[in-house]
Write a structure and sequence with these properties.
By secondary structure, the protein is mainly α. The chain contains 4 helices and no strands. The protein folds into 2 domains: 1-45; 47-101. It is found in: Cell membrane.
């Protein structure tokens, strides 16, 4: 839920036109507030590095997908490769790292 709130807020950030449009601006503030509150709750049980890796990796991919849909911003091949590497990095952490072990 924290990631979803952050992705919605980040996507609305462009629509806010530099905070000159009220509706999208309110969505940005509410979305980021909710996202950080929920991320704080997650960090009670998940190590900071793991939580942030998942947060940032998923956020990058999801924001890019929404940017394609809403703003017609199509990533080029290097961008797609980079996002693939980020996803691979998060997967490596989840699958093999001992940092998240309790």
């Amino acid at each position: 839920m924290a990631i979803a709130a952050e992705v919605i807020a980040t996507t609305a950030l462009k629509a806010s036109a530099g905070f000159s449009r009220l509706g999208p601006s309110l969505l940005v503030v509410a979305g980021y507030g909710t996202a950080f509150w929920l991320l704080g709750l997650v960090m009670n049980t998940v190590p900071v590095g793991i939580a942030y890796a998942i947060w940032s990796g998923a956020g990058i991919v999801l924001v890019t997908l929404l940017a394609v849909l809403f703003y017609r911003q199509i990533p080029d091949l290097p961008a797609l490769i980079g996002m693939g590497l980020i996803i691979a990095g998060v997967a490596v952490i989840q699958l093999w790292s001992k940092i998240g072990a309790h």
